Amino acid sequence: IFDKYDDNGDYIVNGVDMTTKASVDVSEAKNGSIRAYFDESNPDSYDIYVLSKFEIVANKDCSYLLAYYDGLRKVEFKNFNTENTTNMRWMFRECFELATLDLSSFETTKVTTMRNMFYRCSSLISLDLSNFATTNVTDMTGMFAYCKKLGDLQLPNFDVTNVEEMNFMFY
Question: In this structure, what DSSP letter does residue 92 have?
């Protein structure tokens, strides 16, 4: 979950203050302004809480952002600004347990590559990309490859006019 701390600097989930859990500084400046907290209370999966007092601005290159988090079941983007992101390649690669994903808050007008963005998200059944603006995307190769269970895919604004590579997009 990408979100903000409350006014006291806490983040309470089911009565537990997530800020008491083990954490990692994930800020680009390495100044502790953005921290990732891991809740491993469920032995089969885990939740990640990426928190900041301020808006979390995504890097231009978000490739591999959550790739290989194979036990990750849920991701929420409540405080995540993608307006300057250009690369979303492999962003959710092999998130095997991820079943639903709502990316309708993503600003994607500057993105040029979405290659293998959801590659092998084999449990993904619902994906909301309803606000994705794809006019500048040139590479969608394998974007949904091996998403075997994907049945609810919201793509009302997909424009593939400038896409040059889309091999194996739904392989």
Answer: T
